[in-house]
Amino acid sequence: MIRNAVIKDIKEIHSLLKIYGERGELLPRPLSKLYDHVRDFWVYEDDGKVLGCCALQFCWDDLAEIRSLAVNPEHERKKIGTKLVERALSEAIAFNIKHVFTLTYRPGFFQRFGFEKIDRSELPLKIWADCILCIKFPDCDETAMMKVIM
Ligand SMILES: CC(C)(COP(=O)(O)OP(=O)(O)OC[C@H]1O[C@@H](n2cnc3c(N)ncnc32)[C@H](O)[C@@H]1OP(=O)(O)O)[C@@H](O)C(=O)NCCC(=O)NCCS
Fold first, then answer.
1. Labelling 40: which of 29, 74, 89, 129 has CA 20 to 30 A away?
2. pLDDT tens digits, residue range 4-50?
3. Cβ(113)–Cβ(147) under 8 Å?
4. CA of 98 to the centre of ligand 1 (A)
5. Separation of CA 47 and ligand 1 centre (Å)
6. How far is the CA of 48 from the centre of ligand 1 (A)?
7. What residues contact residue 66 under an 8 Å CB cut-off, 6+ apart?
8. Nearest CA to 39 among 63, 22, 55, 25?
9. Residue of the nearest CA to atom 22 in ligand 1?
């Protein structure tokens, strides 16, 4: 089941993101940042174990980012990722957010939800908030994608 993340989930979220961070597939996030943003997260829990996580981070009055989406590699392709993204999108709608973006190495997955590729330069706030601190900046090879919510 999907639920809002709580403080006790942070260590499991951190380990999940670290798996893909070490593979270079996701931006790892320090524990301190995860505690800062615990209220942005949902987790998919099964039998008391966190198998997936996803965050929706508000950036401006009509812009939010889906980030830190990760599913335990042993539990992929069971629709956990889909349910987490659908949960984040319904939250964006509830907050009347018109534009949801993500930076990803899995554009094919996000296209299924109506995300379209955009040029990273369309995301100035994001670049100056996060990217400038990233070890890959300015040579980021993630795909920037945007979903316009009607
Ligand atoms: C991307 C990710 C979240 C998908 O989670 P998941 O639970 O395995 O995905 P789902 O089971 O919900 O997949 C749903 C569908 O998307 C498709 N899909 C999954 N990953 C895909 C990809 N990389 N490209 C294209 N389609 C993909 C699957 O084929 C599946 O279709 P099906 O219904 O025909 O089986 C997971 O692979 C992951 O954690 N990846 C590493 C981290 C990452 O890249 N996060 C996204 C960036 S924020």
1. 74
2. 999 999 999 999 999 999 998 988 889 999 999 999 999 999 999 99
3. yes
4. 24
5. 22
6. 22
7. 54, 55, 56, 85, 88, 89, 100, 101, 102
8. 55
9. 109
**Rounded distance between C-alpha atoms, residue 134 and residue 29, angstroms:** 11
Q: What is the mean pLDDT of the chain?
A: 92
Q: Are the CB atoms for 44 and 50 separated by under 8 Å? A: yes
Write out the E strands in the chain. Answer: 2-4, 41-46, 49-60, 63-71, 99-104, 116-117, 143-148
Answer whether 0.90 is exceeded by the pTM.
yes
Q: Which amino acid is at 8?
A: K
Task: Determine the distance separating the centroid of ligand 1 and the alpha carbon of 81, expressed in angstroms.
Answer: 6
**Which amino acids bring their CB within 6 angstroms of ligand 1?**
20, 25-26, 67, 69-71, 76-82, 102, 104-106, 108-109, 112
DSSP 100: E
